[in-house]
Amino acid sequence: MDLETLLSFQWGMMAPEFTILITGVIVSLQDLFYGKKRLSNWLAIIGILLAMVFLSAQYQHVPVSILYDTYVFDQVSFFFKYILLMGTLLILLMTSTSRDEETEKVRGDFHYLLLAALLGGMIVVSSADIITLYAGLELLSISSYILVGLRKYNRNANEGAMKYIITGSLASAVTLFGLSYIYGLTGTTNLYDISREMSVIDTQLEPLAVLGFVITFVGLTFKISTVPFHMWTPDVYQGAATPITAFLSVVSKAAGFLLLIRIFVAAFTTEPGLSDDLTVYEYAIGFAGVLAAITMIIGNTVALRQRNMKRLFAYSSIAHAGYLLIPLVALSAFSLETIWFYLLAYMWMNIGAFAIIHVLIQNHQTEDISMFSGLYQRSPVLALMMTLFLASLAGIPATAGFIGKFNIFLGALSADPAHYVLAAIMIGTTVISYVYYFNILVQMYSRPKAESSPIQVPKALWLTIAICAAGTLVFGLFPNLALQFFSW
């Protein structure tokens, strides 16, 4: 590639990615020479805000691709990058006043690793080629492995990081093995070229295409914690610092789902994007449907037995991954919109809940559900905010979580009648989730308070909780604000 061709690309579209990259470098350098954690935190926040400004300039922009269609800027990449950036920003606000001694020891390491993981997720979101997709995935994954193990003197963190990197490496190997089948059958790594080749594939080779689909799907579902590839999740969530757990549950999961969308919607349909002529996809979609069903059932039922709040939310996250698989199984023109809205709602309610859990862990030095005992008496506002987030996670009306689940339910009903089973399982498992979510409410409102002292909540954490509560309520009462924004 000559210099003239290189300069002809619209590099300005990558301004958000370049901003995160430069911010990460600056944060790492200032940590090396000055070692001020608070400064690293605010530099990272400023960098993400600047990246969001550059991203806003791409709204309603004509889709653009650079580097010979390997990196794309379209409606899908725009809206999913918004979730990644906003989710990371909220998590940085959570950590701006952290009193975790072990987190303090690593200073800026946390921040530039978080930015590196964010950059990996953004690369995944815009990639239209297997090679760039995998590069972004590994940048996200390796940074996440290190983030989980940052608390090196914590035994749970060591155990979680070890399990995470072993199972993550295995999943990466399986993913590459499946992608090798796809490349061997099509002779290209570009997703749109793969789509074209798959549409005219010889019937004798279809079993190999289905095999490549299933193997790759198995490798990628590790990233979104679906059963039976979920066993790493509870230990990793418990071992990681609470803000890192929130990052894995929201930002990493959003990138993982976009990765599935890019490969299986773009590559296995006859046209880039969604199509009614699904070729290979329709033969293997039953496999994804079975995973969605068992993920919803096991995630919600095992959560009933949990007392550690991080493990409880880990199984809750597994259950929500099952819900999010339904739009991919019942594929329609509204599936992308449905997945995006649900991930947006999940970002507000989950990060808000983790912010409150973070406060209580710092005040009580325990992760047991008993830390919520008498919360309404000690801090009525915190109790009301947690009630809102739990109601949204459970899918109670007037919350963003309810609208997200309702859209998924309608999408399943409007598709093939065979998908009615998934819709029924979703309703049943949602009712099961009421038990463990409302058990937290019982602790807050009906149990005597464990301590009489008021709970200290830093201003930055109040800001995080307030933003998440506003998003949960506004998009629950006025969902069209988000849906119209998505339909540029």
Brief rundown of the structure:
The chain is built from 21 helices and two strands.
Describe this structure in words.
The chain is an all-alpha fold and 488 residues long. The protein has one domain. It is built from 21 helices and two strands. The chain has helices spanning 3-8, 15-33, 37-56, 75-95, 101-106, 109-126, 130-148, 155-186, 191-199, 206-224, 232-239, 242-267, 280-303, 309-329, 335-364, 375-378, 380-394, 400-413, 420-446, 459-477, 480-486, and strands spanning 64-66, 71-73. The chain has a two-stranded antiparallel sheet with strand order 1-2. Strand 1 (64-66) and strand 2 form a beta hairpin. The longest helix is centred in the middle third of the chain and has 32 residues, at 155-186.
* Proportion in helices: over 70%
The unreliable regions are 270-278
Q: Termini, distance in Å?
A: 34 Å
Number of strands: 2
Q: N-to-C SSE series?
A: HHHEEHHHHHHHHHHHHHHHHHH
Secondary structure category: mainly alpha
Output the strand order for the largest sheet: 1-2
- Using only CA atoms, what is the Rg? 22 Å
Q: What is the total number of structural domains?
A: 1
Shape: globular
Strand fraction equals under 5%
How would a crystallographer describe the biggest sheet?
2 strands, antiparallel
Overall pLDDT confidence: 85
Output the number of helix runs.
21
Topology (SSEs and partners):
Layout: H1 3-8, H2 15-33, H3 37-56, E1 64-66, E2 71-73, H4 75-95, H5 101-106, H6 109-126, H7 130-148, H8 155-186, H9 191-199, H10 206-224, H11 232-239, H12 242-267, H13 280-303, H14 309-329, H15 335-364, H16 375-378, H17 380-394, H18 400-413, H19 420-446, H20 459-477, H21 480-486
Antiparallel strand pairs: 1-2
